[in-house]
Amino acid sequence: MTIALPPPDFQNVDVTVIPMPDGGGNSVGGKFMVTCIPENLVVQGTDTVINYRLIAPTPKGIVFAGLAKETRLRERQLSTPSISVDGKMMTFSDQNSLPGTIKITLEFKDNSLIIYDPEIGNEPIGG
Known about the structure:
Distance between the termini: 30 Å
Number of helices: 0
Strand order of the largest sheet: 2-1-4-7-6
CATH superfamily: Cupredoxins -  blue copper proteins
Order of helices and strands: EEEEEEEEEE
CATH architecture: Sandwich
Strand content: over 45%
Helix content: under 10%
Shape: globular
Largest sheet: 5 strands, mixed
């Protein structure tokens, strides 16, 4: 007898990274304005796939470089990210087995490293 598992939850986060020559951006150093929609993701399903994707008007040369995570949760929740060949998408999964906030740092690169710090709120249903 085969048991069908429910499909994982899937959440897209649209990201724009815009150069700010005047230094008025919100990234470290103020050189870029980074916008994420949604800004701070709330995950309720278990084994949720999270896909951050760079969209226009982000300049062509800006790509994902990685992800750093800081959590006070006692167990690992986020998988190692996978970055698409063109660098415009970064995908990872969230086990979401414990409630709490995971602070992440999105890393981008063009000619320099760009970092930005959104959060992921783990809210397991029934947790």
